[in-house]
Specification:
By secondary structure, this protein is an alpha+beta fold. It has one domain: NADH Oxidase. The protein has five helices and four strands; from the N terminus they run H-H-E-H-E-H-E-H-E. It has a four-stranded antiparallel sheet with strand order 1-2-4-3, with helices on both faces. Helix 2 runs antiparallel to helix 4 and helix 3 runs antiparallel to helix 5.
């Protein structure tokens, strides 16, 4: 699948076929895509936690009100920011950089035939604290991405709107 097709095929999937396995080579491709995202000054202010444990995904669901699909997904990838890697003029760009990383995961997963949904964590402090404790991390969780075999086919919700474009 080429990028134009992947962009248009991507959907937020909230229903998954339970107990589906994702091969390690596909996980590695998604993580590689994540790490290919642009970042301010090539600082790469991120780290990733692959959550295969159903118990940990269940725990995340309990602290994140919009992550009810996590226990049925095959796995989750937490994209976590490292603000400490962006001193000086790079300071503060980590949320944008990690967001680009999340988008790359979504598109790579789509190209591989998986469904995903982006569950935002940052900047909601209760979610940050809860997810950080569950994952035992000191970095800042920006998002948790559920990944699995889709058990639904939602219609596209995004569309081109020329009224939102200004040419100068």
């Amino acid at each position: 699948m080429e990028v134009t097709e992947a962009i248009r095929a991507r959907r937020s999937i909230r229903k998954y076929k339970s107990d589906a396995e994702i091969p390690q080579q596909d996980i590695d491709l998604m993580l590689e895509a994540a790490m290919m995202a642009p970042s301010a000054g090539n600082s790469r202010p991120w780290e990733f936690v692959v959550v295969k444990s159903k118990e940990k995904r269940q725990a995340i669901m309990e602290v994140h009100p919009y992550a009810k699909m996590l226990p049925e997904a095959s796995l989750a990838i937490a994209v976590c920011g490292r603000p400490d890697l962006q001193p000086g003029i790079l300071e503060g760009f980590w949320p944008q950089d990690c967001g680009a990383s999340v988008q790359n995961i979504l598109l790579q997963a789509t190209a591989l035939g998986y469904g995903t949904v982006w569950c935002g964590v940052y900047p909601v402090q209760e979610r940050i604290d809860g997810v950080s404790k569950i994952l035992d991390i000191t970095s800042v969780p920006l998002a948790v991405v559920a990944i699995g075999i889709s058990d639904e086919q939602p219609t596209a919700r995004g569309f081109y709107d020329a009224e939102l474009v200004k040419y100068i």
